[in-house]
């Protein structure tokens, strides 16, 4: 009986082979990602700059806190113990594990600045409006999706520049893959899968910029949002 269960769960995990960020390069410094398969086997898990994820399963409910930085019905997001360093204007390179070719969708990146006097290793934004988007890529003129086509063409590394005038401070960098399985491409939410990944970073520099329009996560997407209701038609804007 035990053998059968093990076999079945192995089978399931192979079929649902999603991914996670295995490594991030901030400027020229390399940090290991949170590796759910091996890190979760240790107690406590190794210290990372990434917020822990329980597994590589997608978030599918837009209303759950899990949409923020990952989670599951039995694990809610929590701060990580470490913080990475990057200067404004430098590029963060997020190295994702092999992304399944039938999981097509946009890739978006958000930042959230920790409030004055609050250390990011203690900070949980909850549903406060603290997030702003710094990058979004959908489908290009040749019909190639950010995930998985462009990501795979870039050897699995998603690059995003830290805005040059960004005010220094501690931020959560939230990089997110959306996936509409090829066979469901025309359908809307529900059915779309979200894969958020959150790194804690300290941005240095002399900038002063902080957007005034902030969104909450969860909250930023509704079933009617263009990105969730018309994913097959969605294109990169601006
Ligand atoms: C991504 O990270 C893995 C694991 O550290 C490494 O083997 C691989 O070379 C990295 N890929 C790139 C393109 O840097
Ligand atoms: Cu999937």
TrEMBL record:
One of its GO terms (molecular function) is metal ion binding. Residues 1-17 form the signal peptide. GO terms for biological process: cellulose catabolic process. It is an enzyme of class 1 (oxidoreductase). Its cofactor is Cu(2+). Belongs to the polysaccharide monooxygenase AA9 family. It comes from the Eukaryota. The lineage of its organism: Eukaryota, Fungi, Dikarya, Basidiomycota, Agaricomycotina. The keyword Membrane does not apply. This is lytic cellulose monooxygenase (C4-dehydrogenating). It catalyses: [(1->4)-beta-D-glucosyl]n+m + reduced acceptor + O2 = 4-dehydro-beta-D-glucosyl-[(1->4)-beta-D-glucosyl]n-1 + [(1->4)-beta-D-glucosyl]m + acceptor + H2O. InterPro entries: AA9, AA9_LPMO. Keywords: Carbohydrate metabolism, Cellulose degradation, Copper, Disulfide bond, Hydrolase, Metal-binding, Monooxygenase, Oxidoreductase, Polysaccharide degradation, Signal. Its EC number is 1.14.99.56. Residues 18-228 form the Auxiliary Activity family 9 catalytic domain.
